Structure formats: structure tokens, C-alpha cells
Amino acid sequence: MGLLALGTALDWPEARKRAQQVREWGILQLLEIWNKAKGKERDALLWGDEVEYLVVLYEKEGSKVLLSLRQAEILDALACDAELAKKGGCTAEGQDAELKQTQSQPVPVFHPEFGRFMLEATPGKPWGIGFKELLGVEPDMKLRRRIAKEHMLPTEYPITLTTFPRIGSPGQFTFPEYPISGPRLRSQFVPDEIANPHIRFPTLAANIRSRRGRKVQVNVPVFHDKNTPKPWKDPTVDFDLHQWPEDDDVRNGAAPDDHIHMDAMAFGMGSCCLQITFQAKNITEGRQMYDQLSPLGPIMLALTAATPVYKGFLANTDVRWNQISNAVDCRTPEEMGEKPLKNDRWRIPKSRYASNSTYIAEDARLRPEYLDPDLVFDPEIKQTLMDGGMDDLLATHFAHLFIRDPIVIFAEDLEELDLKKTDHFENIQSTNWQHMRFKPPPADNSIGWRVEFRSMEIQITDFENAAFSVFMVLVTRAILSFDLNFYVPIKRVDENMERAHALDGVLREKFYFRKNPFPARPSRANTVFGDDSRPGSAMPSRPASPGLVEDEYEEMTVNEIINGSMDGEFPGLVPIVESYLDSVNVDVETRCELATYLDLISKRSSGELDTTARWMRNFIAAHPNYKQDSVVDEKITHDLVGAAIAIGERENEGRNFAGLGIPGLPKLLGNFRGGCGGGDENGAVAGVDGSPSETRKRKSDWIEDGSGAS
Ligand code: ADP
Ligand code: MG
Ligand code: MG
Ligand code: MG
């Protein structure tokens, strides 16, 4: 999480009165950073990942698995570990940054998260630009899992499922157990104690609810199996609860038929994801990365799909995104367009957790048609930023983020404006949870402009998490190196985000994607007919007329986007990455290891391997307790979590999965643990060249050798 201040948190009626002050001070702080850092140059191409874990209490012999609410105790145990302290420490607050800098392999950092059953871990220091460093990611992720486990009870495990399948189900699902329907969340399904007790988190949940004027509504379409009633009514909803005014919500239609109904922030923010932050060399490059990675967000969401179960029922969607979006949607009925605007300033089409709505690069390729003409932004804030010297595009971006109210305000912070801090700016910035985040340098300017890629779902193994992280790093390098252009209208990115939710969307859906990502080459026509581009002329060739925006993109499958289209029209991201690797100096061993990652990405896209969501669905369907009625009971959950634990343990021991007897595993992970040069227990060898199909176009067909690769 971005910001963990301490102090007296204001309840919503008070916070609302101070919202404008926070916005104004936040904008002044932003201008201060911007003026100080806009000319920052030559920052290193660093990057870092974030892995989030659920902590479960599990015994193999049992029939029930519980969420462990011991986040604070586990973080304490990590902080108190003398061996780790000697190496610079392992918790965000307790670490010795200077000591860590001196370590060649600094120990990882653990962070609290919203759910009291969650942990987050990041590398001890960001990764550098070297290719060899990419091979350090997976061992580091395994080390994090090992260290986390060592500071837990013998029956506690860190697992990387996106969501706990039975969070909010009737009966006990946490340890310790607490009564539901507490004053902060007022949830029918989860206790207030489900959230991190740090005042920021319950206040966030309570103030979102107050601002909305009702509880959050997270309704996920149920998956209709053979024996699932139609219509299906969520049997866990209690229509006769009369403890809080909000208990009326379900009587007023909050829980529609055929939907799994959830009513608290924990159902969304209790999900685990995989995020990657990149540092750019300067602000221009950062803005370019932000724009170019934006259209990839929904594609990577679909490809990492891992969330088919909610509250003990199979859902008809595969990913977590919209559930988080709904779980923190603080919009009022006026803002949502349910009532005429009277007290609020504008209608807002999206939750503050949503796909991003603007592009920000100062890039000649960014056509005005790609932007949303109806984008909501605060014109006064935009003017303040522009008066302060910021350009129109970036001012629009921040003026859009600043249509939101700050939700958690600490009284102490409002006494005096401190322009050497960024707390008020970060208050709004870090509660705009968009799928990309443009992160300005901190107030002390010690690090550079960063861009965070936030859409991916966490995977069960560290192998997969490393694969997706490294893939995104390589794609980003290829974007910069080949000057790739993935622009499509931002509204198409929104549509893609919706499509990414579909069950098996990775195989069944099509996504709007740009047909030609390469920079224009001077065309023959220009050379022959254009009088300003004769060979030897100092004049640049005339740019081709831009043509219709609609002709620039088409609907493609994830397979086409990742592996390339059969007709060779679209090269595919994996082949582009391979070309990039061809163009730089990578030793054979590194190249081979990277190929195992690219192979996973490629095969998940083609359907040769299953997504995590598909594997879970198959696992559940094959379980003796499953009655084809969409119900994922305690025993199924126990065994599913048990499988995730067993896979993780084997992986951490460096062993293969032989003898585990987990259904569907070969189709989830293939032969990737075979590594380079050898085979796995199935005798399969991971190829060096992960190219999916010989019939597809190769790099030389679309990029001239040495075209700007660096
Ligand atoms: P947040 O939760 O706000 O996104 P975190 O601190 O949890 O932030 O994670 C940020 C990630 O960025 C970590 O992986 C960290 O290693 C990485 N990181 C830190 N400094 C830099 C930097 N200068 N450039 C790129 N990445 C960085
Ligand atoms: Mg996090
Ligand atoms: Mg984080
Ligand atoms: Mg993050």
C-alpha cells in the first residue's frame, strides 16, 4: 500500500468538509515535485515486483482450511529476527536502507496489506537493467516465500491464490473467529476484524460506505452448472437482518438473482495481485511507458486469470478486477447517475479502482481521437497545474485523478502545509487504483519517474510469477528499444478490460489491438514521388496521412496478440521480445532460462496450457464433493488450498511435482521445471527457441536488423 500515516482519522462527515483542502494542498505538493523533478535525467532503468500472499491455516488431515488473521504477529516476528536484522531487516518500517545497500543480495521486504490475512513482499532493492538479474527474480520470490513461512506457525502457509475461495461463506473461515456485522463494515458476511486493524484501513472501508450512502455492492454472476438452479438466489444472503440501516440494502435490490452477492471491501481489496513498477530514465520516457503499457493491461489480465470462485460459489468470470472495483466504489447515487446532480459536482462513469482513462505521453503518435472526449476532470485544478507550468495532457491526467475525494484524512496533517512532503498528493494519488499508475519521484527526489503495471493476477508458483514479471520487463524494453506503438482509443482499453473478465476469456474473447506496432518506414511511394525525400535529401520523408483510427486496430485473440497472427500480419509480443533478445547480447544460459518463461506465456496464450482459473475449475469439477451445482464446499477448498501448498513446497525444494497426484497439473505448468539443457520427469526438454509456430513471421520480416535496438 502506498501510504501508512499515523494520527486521528476523521470520520466521513468531518473528512468531507476537509476534502477540498487536501486536494488544494495535494496539488501544491504535486507542483512542487513536478517543478523539482521534471528535468530529472538519466535515472537507471530499475524495476521491482510486488507479490501478495494469503495466509492460511491448513492441516493435511483436516477437512477445513481457515484464513489466518495473524498479519501483525507475522510482521513482528520478521521484524524481530536478529539474523535478518543483521542483513538490513525485512520489514518496511524496520529496515536499515543503508546497510541493505551494501548487501549484494539484500533480504526482501514484507509489507502489511488491507486484509489481515494478507502479506506483501518486494525484493530487498529494485532490480537493475542486467539480463542476468532477470534470473534472480524467481529465486528471490522463492526466498520470500521461505522467509515468510519460517515466521509463521507450523500450520500456517503463505499461498498465492488471488482470493480465498470461501471468504464470507457461512461458518468459520477465519482464525480467530469473530462475529460478523460489525460497526465499521456492517457486512453480513465478514467481521470488521477481517481488515488490517491499522486505523487507515477500517476508516477507508467505513468512509467509502458512508460516502456512498450504502454498503458497497459486489455482485458476480454465478456460473450455471448442470445442477445449479435457475434463477439462482444466493442462499447465504440474509434478508431479515435488522442491526444496521445498511441491512436494508439487500431488501432494496442489492442482491440480484443469479449473482454471488458480497458487501464489503475485503471481498475486493482482499485479493492478491502481481504488480510491476518500472523506473524510466526521465519523465518523457515514463509518460511513453505509461501509454504503451496501458493497452496491454487487459490482455495480461485475461492471460493471468486466476479468480473463478467467490464466497464458496463458482463465478461466471475468471478475474478479480471488477470485484475490487466495486468493493471500493465510493461514488454517490448522483455521481453514478442514479439521481439528478444536486450536491455532487459531476457524474463519474467509473469507480476509483478502474482501468485508466487518459493517455499522457507527449508523443506525436498520440492522436486526439485516442482520448476520451467525455473525460471528467476538475477544470480549476487543471488550470492551477497549467498556471504552474504543467502541460495540458499531464495536467488533465492529474485533474482527472483529483475529481475524487480523499477518503482517509488525519486531523494532524491539516494543521500546516508542508511542501517538503507529498502526503496530500499521495492521499488522492494512491487511492486512485487504476490499472496503470504514474508515480512521480518522492519529495526528496532520490528516485525517478516510475510507472506501475497493476492488472496482473497472482499465480500459484513463483516460476509463473517470475515468468510474468520478466515478460513484462522484456516487453517494456522492447517497447523502448523498437519504439513500438500500441495506441488504441482509450475507450477500447476499457472495453477490453470488461472482456478480460469472461470465463476462459483468454481463449474465447477477442480484444481490440493495434495492427501494426512498428514505426513507419519511409515508403517506396515517398521515395519515388515525394520531392522532399529523394535519396540524399536532407528533408525527412513526408509522414503518411494518418488515415482512419478505426483502421489502425482490429479484434484479436490473446493468442494472436502474444504469439502472432497466422497470416503474419501481427507479429506477436513473444516474437517481438525474442527479436529484442536477438538484438542485444544475452549469453546462452540466460537466453535459455528466459525462453522457459516465454514458453509459459506463449502456451498459456495458445491454450496448450491452462490459466490458473481454468485449472481451478477443472480441479473443482473433478473433486468427489462437487455436485455440479456451483458450490465449492469446505472440503474442496481445503484440498484446493492443499494443492497450492504442496505445489509451493515442492517448488521451493527444487523438486518436481511427480507423485503429488494433483489433477490437471501438467496442463497448468507443462514441463517448465525441466530448466535448460535437461528434461523434466516427463522427458520433455524446454526449448531455447520458444517460437510458437514456424509458419509465423519472423523478426527479420518486420524489423530491419539493428533498427535502434539498444
Ligand atoms: P506500492 O505498493 O505503492 O506500489 P511498493 O513499495 O510496495 O509500492 O512496491 C514498489 C515496487 O517498486 C517494489 O518492487 C520496489 O522494489 C520497486 N522500486 C523501488 N524503487 C524503485 C525504483 N527507483 N525504480 C523502480 N522500481 C522501484
Ligand atoms: Mg499491495
Ligand atoms: Mg506495495
Ligand atoms: Mg503496487
Percent in helix: 25-40%
Report the major sheet.
Answer: 9 strands, mixed
Report the total helices: 25
- Say how many strands there are: 17
Overall structural class, as computed from helix and strand content, comes to alpha+beta
Ligand catalogue? adenosine-5'-diphosphate, magnesium ion
Q: Could you tell me the radius of gyration in angstroms? A: 25 Å
End-to-end C-alpha gap: 34 Å
The overall pLDDT, averaged over residues, is 91
Bulk shape = globular
Low-pLDDT windows of residues = 523-541, 678-695, 705-710
Architecture overview:
It contains 25 helices and 17 strands. It has 710 residues and is α+β, with helices and mostly antiparallel strands. Strands 1, 2, 3, 4, 5, 6, 9, 14 and 15 form a 9-stranded mixed beta sheet that branches. Strands 7-8 form a two-stranded antiparallel ribbon. The chain is globular, with a radius of gyration of 25 Å. Residues 523-541, 678-695 and 705-710 have low confidence and may be disordered. Bound molecules: adenosine-5'-diphosphate and magnesium ion (MG) (3 copies). The site of one magnesium ion has 4 residues, from loops.
